[in-house]
Amino acid sequence: MRDRVTTVYGGLALLWAAAVVLQVFFAGLGIFGASSFKTHTNFGNVLHGFTALLLILAMVGPRTGRDIGMAAGLVVLVTIQIGIVGARDDAPGLAALHPVLALLALGLAVHMGMHALRGRRAVAAPA
Fold first, then answer.
1. 89, 119, 93, 127: which is closest to 10 by C-alpha?
2. DSSP state of 86
3. For residues 57, 58, 60 and 64, what is the CA-based torsion angle, rounded to 10 degrees?
């Protein structure tokens, strides 16, 4: 059971990272006027919710301090990223970190997924 949860955790982390690429596309649609930023905002909220799911899966599946720490870090990083958007009028330099944090979150999610799935393969190989 734990191995399956670890596999789901790793796969979902990589899926989350792929969804960030879609999120950047939604931002581009808003920037270039093809649509409003509403899709970007709504999808960002969904992605934020999925970070909590990744944290729960990290606690149930891999259960290592490293995996739990990375998942918790992703939750915190995305929460800060969403929070700084509100500073765009008062502190545009701070709000400009929003896409930078998205890149960090993308990298962290890829690392989480690869770490979990690579570890799963290493365990499965000798059997």
1. 119
2. G
3. 170
